[in-house]
Model the fold of this input.
Amino acid sequence: MGLFPVSLHGGGESVEISHADAALGSFLCSISKSTLELALTSRLAPFRAFVFPYVCDVSRNVEGIFSRVLPGAETYMLHLPQNFHSAATVPFLTAEYRRLIARLEKAGGEPYDPERLAASIELFNQQRAAIADLTATKRNEPGKLTLTESYLVRRLGGLLPREIHIPLLHRVRSELAQRPNRTKDAIRTLLVGPFCEQPTLDLIDLMEQVGCYIVDDELLQIHRWYDRVDPGGDPLTNLASAYVQSPVDIGVRAAPTTKGEAILRRVGAAEAQGVIFLTAKFCEPALEDVVLYRKALEREKIPYLHLEFEERSTSYESARLQLETFVESILFD
Ligand code: SF4
Done:
């Protein structure tokens, strides 16, 4: 529809909050405030449309405020299903995509064309496959690249045209093939929780500095929601089916009974020796999951550590101490 999709993950550590605090309570996650701050300070002027996935009440409220403060842009709250077993779920989501399309047509000025969407799905399939390859390298040969490197390459994927990002990922793959897998005495660790608000680079770096290999993570989950979407047939139904059938089990999917099994499966698949819960401060979906995950991990005697972060954290002394204790407790067990 003539639009270029960009993933916006808040304002990060460089945005000073001076206006958003007046509109949002102090007990809300940082990403909601820094995103709103970007809107209130005209930094989002180049964008013609904003799509908010309905992942929690906070995201719903931010969408409402956006529609008032940016009346010249389209804003849309994308209602994602929570019931994954009903026969009505895929038709519901397909209809929801059609409602979104009507708004995007207005913003982009070009009509929806199923053939162009199918071509776009094929492009995003290639991007997801290349990112899956990168994360598999981190899982299987964790000494080849740092978590920071893996994170930054993935993060570019939501900012660059995919036609540029895919060759970049291929270049990264061939350069990694030449790199030695320099292993050290480190704990294979699964990182859970930062699926929405993203931690600072300092904190991402710190986890590996103190002796963890983050062999699987929930950072930038957007690229890993599903492996492949079938581009044939009706592309909207295929997108909806892929969303509903995705095996990804994170805080914004409400299937509480499967959470315990899901975390144990992921620990097993990553051959992780421990789990770090790194949750954004005041993020309820992540915190609700932690309760369910902890029960399953305690039952299986798998060590875990829970840390909270904010986008604008600057001091990591307490986090460093807790991480070092976590690593030592596993190394010397
Ligand atoms: S960080 Fe958590 S609470 Fe904040 S918008 Fe994301 S899912 Fe919602």
